[in-house]
Design goal:
This protein is an all-beta fold. The protein folds into 2 domains: 7-255; 259-295, no CATH class. The chain is 1% helix and 49% strand. The chain has 1 helix and 25 strands. The protein has a 7-stranded antiparallel sheet with strand order 4-5-6-13-20-15-16, with no helix packed on it. A hairpin with a 5-residue loop joins strand 7 (57-60) and strand 8.
């Protein structure tokens, strides 16, 4: 994360007893039960975040008309051993809601359940209209650093240019730094990885993250270069993604532009787990209460 951020927002924090508390905007979120969604908007100096939480139909007819929705919820979570609180909504981010008849013992029942069409990276099926997704619009060019919790690493993660509806290319247009469950240091502690790899380099594997092939949870920070006055969407293919914090550095062309030359060299250095580390440690570090990157 950047050392001199212009914009910072925490979706979840800790109280004095180390309980996770979601931000006021999510606590006071309006639930639109008629349309099965909840929209939370956060305006920062240079970027606006819109979080859309959805739900699933409880009652649906053959024409996909919904008469009753299941509950919509914003909830908190925590990857506690490295202090990573996050907020997560409900609903898979679907492009189109359909209905399919329930078949029992090979016979149609006359009752229906929801079916979904999901986003494709070429934009051919359109963008999500409900379920959990996030939009970010920059008022200036810069770098968005977004804390994310991905409980299902085998689900495709998309960062999408809303105007073109096409998915950006992982590890080219944006990167993901952080922790992957099961990836540890020699002493058994969780390893912080700069530039988590994707499962593969093409097809669906391009959008599945993790050195272990996407089979594990991941929590860390997306680094997305944003152009001014453009909107970018972040979501999983058919699961929910949690958001920890939002940081925007205007004027940067990427996270590597950030320097740490204003820090007091004599102050102790800590990693993101709050552990004191040596002065020559690499990765995202904290010194004098500020985050910086050393490669």
């Amino acid at each position: 994360m950047s050392a001199n951020a212009q914009d910072y927002y925490a979706a979840a924090t800790y109280d004095a007893d180390k309980n996770v508390v979601m931000a006021e905007e999510f606590q006071n979120a309006v639930i639109d039960t008629q349309n099965g969604k909840s929209v939370v908007t956060v305006d920062l100096t240079n970027v606006t975040m819109t979080a859309v939480g959805g739900t699933t139909p409880k009652e649906i007819d053959k024409d996909a008309n919904v008469s009753e929705w299941n509950a919509i919820e914003w909830k908190t979570g925590n990857q506690g051993d490295i202090e990573f609180p996050y907020v997560q909504g409900t609903g898979n981010p679907y492009v189109k809601l359909l209905a399919e008849e329930v078949i029992t013992d090979g016979q149609p029942t006359g009752t229906y359940r929801p079916a979904y069409e999901y986003y494709e990276p070429d934009g051919s099926k359109g963008l999500p209209v409900s379920g959990l997704y996030y939009e970010f619009k920059a008022k200036a060019e810069g770098t968005l650093v977004l804390g994310v919790w991905i409980n299902k690493g085998n689900r495709k993660l998309f960062v999408v240019d809303k105007e073109t509806q096409k998915a950006l290319t992982p590890n080219v247009d944006y990167t993901l730094d952080g922790y992957e469950n099961g990836v540890t240091n020699e002493d058994g502690t969780k390893a912080y990885t700069m530039g988590i790899p994707t499962k593969g380099t093409e097809g669906d594997d391009l959008y599945i993250w993790g050195a272990k092939g996407g089979g594990q949870a991941i929590w860390g920070w997306l680094n997305i270069h944003m152009k001014a006055d453009q909107t970018y969407m972040v979501f999983l293919h058919s699961a929910q993604i949690g958001v920890s914090d939002v940081e925007f550095e205007a004027g940067t062309s990427g996270i590597n532009d950030i320097t740490n030359n204003t820090f007091d060299a004599d102050a102790p250095v800590y990693n993101l787990a709050g552990q004191r580390v040596s002065k020559d440690a690499k990765g995202i570090l904290i010194q004098n209460g500020k985050k910086f990157i050393r490669k």
